[in-house]
Amino acid sequence: MLYILDNCEALKFLYCVVYFMQYIQQAKRTSEFRNSLIYPKGEGDFTMPLPGAFQSKKKDGSIYYRSSVTYHSRHISLGSFQTEKEAHLVYLEAKNLLETTKELSPDDYDSSDFPLLPFPKWISLLNFKNNGYYIKTPIYLRSNFFSYYLSPSDVLLFDADDLFFYSNHKIMRRGNHLFVAEYGMQTNIHSRYGIRNFARPGIDYRFVNGDDKDFRYSNIEIINPYQGVTKKEEKNKAVYLAKIHIHGDFVIGKYHTIEEAAIAYNKAVNLVQSVGMTKNFEKNYIETISEKEYNTIYEQITIPHHIYDAAKKYLSNDSV
Predict the structure, then answer these.
(1) What is the pTM of this model?
(2) Weakest mean pLDDT among 36-50, 86-100, 135-149
(3) pLDDT at site 279
(4) Where are the domains of the chain?
(5) SS3 string of the chain?
């Protein structure tokens, strides 16, 4: 009796083995199987994928590998790579960073310890590990402010009020210009802080502590918010010089208030444009006075005739 039962169990086991082998043979022919549990390394060669590496196809049919890691139930993409091995090694570097018991700060970054994991992703993972928030841009949270890492040595500081914006906008640097992609355009981040295009550091604005990477609001002082206006001291009194650039700088006049100088610049722009200049002058928008006050000052201001002559000369030279 035991012999018969043993034979029955053996037959059941063999049947399962045969069924499983048939399933494997069938599964090898399907792309679904190749893209999930196993996939080809070569002709007729199938193997299990390396942890953290996932095969994908580009539109042209070429193969690449995605890498990702899971931490605190959060699935985090680590990037795309040409080889499975590279994707796997990046996964291991990320895993080691997230699981290490050693206390780390952004200052502890060493590229030799993480040769493949991109630095911006290293910052994002470290912030997640230390502060409990995953942010896709390279932000590290501080007390009431945060650091934005363009590189290990290029670090910008922002107030907490700006966290939502920079969590969703990648900052890029081109020389001294810092910008984000916004509504299909490149927007200079200085404009968020009242620093207009072509503003002159030390003349139109300044960083109070001298650090031009510290964009916390308390550190930015706008000296002159208006285009074409410069503050000067004459006989211990402040005067405001208005100038317009045509083919060089031309003085419009000196005024007792910054608003008068800004309006004089606007009126000079209107004059040169009325004679045919198509140059894109940036006009001043003045919030501190009413429309009626603006119009009164505008009518009282006289633009020197040499501004008109300079515009006509510019146009005649341009047409030659």
Answers:
(1) 0.74
(2) 36-50
(3) 86
(4) 1-48, 49-134, 235-319
(5) CHHHHHHHHHHHHHHHHHHHHHHHHHHHCCHHHHCCCCEEEECCEEECCCCCEEEEECCCCCEEEEEEEEECCEEEEEEEECCHHHHHHHHHHHHHHHHCCCCCCHHHCCCCCCCCCCHHHHHHHHHHHHHCCCCCCCEEECCCEEEEEEECCEEEEEEHHHHHHHHCCCEEEECCEEEEEECCEEEEHHHHHCCCCCCCECCCEEECCCCCCECCHHHEEECCCCCCEEEEEECCEEEEEEEEECCCEEEEEEECCHHHHHHHHHHHHHHHHHCCCCCCCCCCCCCCCCHHHHHHHHHHCCCCHHHHHHHHHHHHHHHC
